[in-house]
Design goal:
By secondary structure, this protein is α/β, with parallel strands linked by helices. The protein has nine helices and ten strands. It comes from marine sediment metagenome.
Length: about 280
């Protein structure tokens, strides 16, 4: 949320030194509020003031990037609820899953079909942006092998889906150079998952069953040193999911509630159960 001139003035040194080109610190603060001056013009501003002003100027929803090279994708950084209010900065990322129960030729065929997948909606041609490897087997070895094969055969942005810290650590060791999105950390695994994400410079999904628990979890992960966070709601019906996603967006954008100021991830197959091969 933008600060007023008086709020900015309270963070300035109040020396009236005129080295910024303004006659007083208050005049400089007013110029800052109107984006007609730069904070760097003040030689005596404290680091604490810089941090507070940077946080206030940041978009209400953090931008999160994952993937590498030309196929890197970005989500978040939105500032409004609806497109007509201003614009949306980053489109929704579409991902298709790959089960780690697949192996050999079956796995390769699945990956190749996802790579070439395109479809048309309302006159617009859409393609897949990311590929998500899911730890359906529960085995760290199977997950790691499936992730490594997927990373080798696909240039799409990679999402690693497991709630096991052991499986996540093993797969990131093989695929960390692709900057995958790690999904997901829950309350009981937050510290371990955050350590993996921080050490490998990867974004992390925070997953909880309610908005309240989700906001607490995102703060817990942030306190562990991870800044790039994606939010995910667990075990909700389609109706509850839509309602709560709207609440998260409203609280993040309208109320600038920073613990919910992150992009969200939804796995549609969890709302409409089907065979994993059709996800």
């Amino acid at each position: 949320m933008a600060l007023t001139g008086l709020e900015i003035f309270k963070l300035l040194p109040k020396t009236n030194c005129k080295k910024c080109g303004m006659p007083t610190c208050l005049a400089f603060a007013m110029q800052l509020a109107q984006k007609r001056a730069k904070l760097e013009d003040c030689p005596y501003v404290s680091e604490e003031a810089k941090e507070k002003l940077a946080a206030a100027a940041a978009p209400p929803m953090r931008k999160v990037a994952f993937g590498s090279g030309d196929n890197q994708v970005q989500v978040g950084q939105e500032t409004v609820m609806f497109r007509h209010e201003e614009k949306f900065y980053n489109p929704t990322v579409l991902a298709v899953t790959v089960s780690d129960k697949l192996a050999g030729e079956d796995l390769k065929k699945r990956i190749e079909s996802i790579n070439s997948l395109q479809f048309e909606r309302v006159g617009t041609k859409l393609s897949v942006d990311a590929i998500a490897v899911v730890n359906d087997s529960g085995s760290a070895d199977s997950f790691t092998q499936a992730a490594a094969t997927t990373n080798e055969l696909s240039n799409l942005a990679l999402i690693l889906v497991t709630e096991s810290a052991e499986s996540m650590a093993a797969s990131v060791e093989r695929c960390g150079d692709s900057s995958p999105l790690l999904a997901s950390a829950k309350a009981d695994t937050a510290k371990e998952m955050a350590k993996i994400a921080k050490e490998n410079n990867c974004p992390l999904v925070a997953k909880a069953e309610s908005i309240e628990a989700l906001s607490e979890l995102s703060e817990k992960i942030k306190a562990e040193g991870v800044r790039d966070i994606v939010l995910s709601l667990d075990a909700l019906s389609l109706r509850e999911q839509l309602y709560n996603l709207s609440r998260i967006r409203t609280l993040g954008l309208k109320k600038v509630f920073r613990p919910l100021g992150y992009p969200t991830l939804t796995r549609l197959s969890s709302l409409m159960p089907r065979d994993s091969s059709d996800e």
